[in-house]
Design brief:
Elements: E1 9-13, E2 22-26, H1 38-50, H2 58-82
Antiparallel strand pairs: 1-2
């Protein structure tokens, strides 16, 4: 037997329909009452389907800054020797 509860849902069609046709997101009861727009709800649902954004590894940034610092140090050393 189905209990008489109504819930608000968002249905998002999958961009690549190899395995899934659509995703159904059930909204929290207080999600709509907080002044969230329909566009914001749809944007967050689509972002959840895509998954987390891929970020560059942090160690790459450290290597770039270390190489830049070494280069500047080398240039400063050359200038002090030549001048």
């Amino acid at each position: 037997m189905v209990k008489g509860i109504s819930r608000q849902v968002i249905v998002v069609h999958a961009p690549d329909q190899k395995l899934f046709e659509q995703a159904i997101f059930i909204l929290k009861d207080d999600a709509v009452g907080e002044g969230v727009t329909d566009e914001a709800l749809l944007k967050e649902a689509k972002q959840a389907i895509r998954g987390p954004e891929k970020r560059r590894p942090l160690y790459l940034y450290g290597a770039v800054w270390a190489a830049g610092g070494a280069l500047l140090t080398g240039i400063a050393w050359l200038l002090t020797v030549l001048i």
